[in-house]
Amino acid sequence: MAQMGLQGVVRGRAFKRTTVVDEAAQRPPDLVQRSFTADRPNRLWVADLTYVPTGAGFVYVAFVIDAFSRRIVGWRVSNSLRSDLALDALEQALHARSDLDGLIHHSDRGVQYLSIRYTDRLKEARIELSVGSVGDAYDNALAETINGLYKAEVIRHRGPWKNLEHVEFATLEWVDWFNHRRLLSSIGDIPPAEFEAMYYAQASAPEAGSALADMDALCLPSGASSPGGPERSGGGEERMDEDPEGRHSGSCAQEVKSPAAVAGLN
């Protein structure tokens, strides 16, 4: 059938492939090994692509996420899977953030992330590249989780979608809400922006030796959330899902050191 160009009917929903592998491309090592933890902002970024069907055809969305707070630091919507899509999201993240010393960028092995232009831009910014295995969602579980929330909270909830501009405006609204108002169980039921602000405030406090005592108390123990889907907090906001196996996909504050230790003040 394959030789004749024939394909049988498949029950269930079809999906769009966004990870296209270049077998000839050099493959950097996996520096993360499914441990999506960070002791401060800008220590580990994860990146991924997803797709949205619209009345005018498929559009594609790229995200860059900071593993420390789960904050979306870069994103872009395009009607093409060209390398510029991922690169534009990266450029937005680089423009928005500073103090990138020691930063690792983790992604799948898609051609967009292994392209010469993309890898050269990472080298120029002195960011180390890490990639997971092909076809294994767990090797980029944190980015897959954010994609899943985006699909559940925006795409499936508010569709159908007319065109790229329709998706782009809704994504802009959702990213702002996610970063500043969405309560995430993995960081203590507070938004990513608030979690980062708390970190920086405590890091600059005169007595930084016990600065993260409150932040450590915020994080839930491993496996504390339901693996079945988004929970509801007391205030009615959805709480962030854990990874598909019910574990924390790198709960940051559980492995975060005190700001004093990070700053070398202890």
Overview of this structure, please?
A hairpin with a 5-residue loop joins strand 6 and strand 7. This protein has a single domain, classed as Nucleotidyltransferase, domain 5. By secondary structure, it is an alpha/beta fold. It is globular and about 70 Å long. It has eight helices and seven strands, in the order βββαβααβααααββα. The protein starts with 43 loop residues before the first strand and ends with a helix. Strands 3-2-1-4-5 form a five-stranded mixed beta sheet, with helices on both faces. A two-stranded antiparallel sheet has the order 6-7.
Keywords:
single chain; 266 residues; Nucleotidyltransferase, domain 5; 8 helices
